[in-house]
């Protein structure tokens, strides 16, 4: 969830990820055998001195290597009638992970970003947070980047357009996360492009969107989070596709207060997967497909199905995102692990109103080729990784170590080895930091 809160009662100060491309060919038979042989990896936390990140973080924290330079893009940019216009989306660079993560706020640079369009006109509306960066392999300089961004709007910034079906109707709109009467946001996912290593960006359009009919309104939506939408993404490139892992917060169909069913809502949430051809990133809108239960067949603005193994059963406290009692996983951060030879997913857990949750979880997937059969859905049941009672934990990610091996391999938060540094945000404190390293065992 993305909010910039400046009053002390909440202190929710919120704010990319380099994409690891893997091209191993495989067959359904080989992958079925791989699932049967897969032994869930073991992991242990190694307590360390606190490693503070020195600037504003409100998103998945990730980075990209451009030559011998590691670059990160945290923060928020754009119009927001609730929290105010933001200009915190900036980048820092260095020669290794520790150097970049230790960068003082004063050393961050603001890139050139597209201006918000006039209300009612095509273009960029609302605020954006870079969550993932895909580095175009066709550019040997490494400077061509596609940023996958989380975008938030309100009926005020994106009023309903009956001709396109885009935008929102300010009627029975739920409340958002403030101490005053303000509206809930709707999240979408879009794409920007840079050809100069991240110094300037051009908006290319939307990746995924949930439209007005799927918004969950009063009197049912009392979570003080989102009215609906898709957001908090993490992405990985496999072969010719970019696979997007994201939070699904809308109703899985047309919302009607008279027939609303919380179990139906919960069944359509919360971590889902979509994909788009990498060659379509220059003009993404309408090109992505969501997983529909059998394949990537649902349209970019249609109803897909979440990863079943990542859903929280009702018997274990699971429920819809619009309910203050509903429990669900959110905020995926996905990486390929060279040592384990499998995918690793970090995620948060919501267990109360206003995005409250004090636990972080981890899951694994043995299939390098996500496009074969239902490989993309083959995630292990999430295991508890960290709990900090009394706190609110958001945005977990595994980050490279400052070791010779990690530097030589140019590891990032989406490609790692046997050991990694765990970062997450104490949202109640407004601080992003690392208290642990994570060591894996096969």
Automatic annotation (TrEMBL):
PROSITE patterns reported for this sequence: PROKAR_LIPOPROTEIN
InterPro entries documented for this protein: Sialidase_sf
Annotated protein name in UniProt: DUF4185 domain-containing protein
Organism this protein belongs to: Shivajiella indica
